Amino acid sequence: MTNSPDFGMALGRLLDRKGVGVQHLADLAGVTADEIRAVLARETPGEGLLRRLATALGFHAVDLFVLAGVEVPADLAPLDAAAASWVPNIVMDAVHLPSAGRRELLQIIRSLPREERRSRFAPEKPAPLADSPGGRLIRMCRYRNLKWSGLAHILAVVTPTYLSTSTYGVISDGHKELTPRLVTDFAAILGIEARELAALTGVFLPETPEPAAPEAVDAAALLWEVRCLSATQAQHVAELADSMRGDSRAEYRLNLPAW
User: Fold this and answer.
1) Per-block average pLDDT, block size 10, for the chain (259 residues)?
2) What is the DSSP string of 176-189?
3) Which of 78, 108, 205, 206 has a C-alpha 20 to 30 A away from that of 244?
4) How many other CB atoms are there within 10 angstroms of residue 120's CB atom?
5) What's the pTM?
6) Could you tell me if 40 and 93 lie in one domain?
């Protein structure tokens, strides 16, 4: 992964958005203000600092590693890249369940035993990822075990964004600019507040977006939790989610929430 010289600028925009000053952030993170200023001046942050910043800012650490272009530590990566085959079905079936069913499925996932990591996480790379806002968002999704096809299916079901699989490849290589709609919808499944993701990507949102629908909120939670599953466990959960839908599992509705 290549260091991103834009991370300092992105962090500065995020702090402006959150109304957090350098000293306040330093106090929250337990670091010095000079360390924060160095990052804002485009110095590449170290692993320890990124972890502390994530906690202080309320972000998943892996997302800050990706945004900073710093290699993601093994303990922050999904357990098993092979589980990616089952992730889209888990999420798409789950969001068609009533809220109680979604909560039950989340509880089941969280209750499963954590298996040992057997190999280094190496997501499938159909094409190089550009050091661009779009490339970073696609990489963040990869660290949620989402390939282009899975991303296309999930976004089509839980948001108004309905794009072809290949279009996500164009986004990943930096040849398609991010729109306010795309940023808002990526934010929903990543579990990041839309205006904060807009600040991090440098995309202007002309209007304040509506809060993410409950189905999208739960989709983001499911995506995060299934990162801890092996492929075998993910298959089991996918089969369970399918069975929980009962007679309604014949099809997926697009743009399921009332956006």
Assistant:
1) 76 97 98 98 96 98 95 95 96 94 97 92 63 91 94 94 92 89 96 97 92 93 97 97 78 64
2) SPPPHHHHHHHHHH
3) 78
4) 8
5) 0.91
6) no
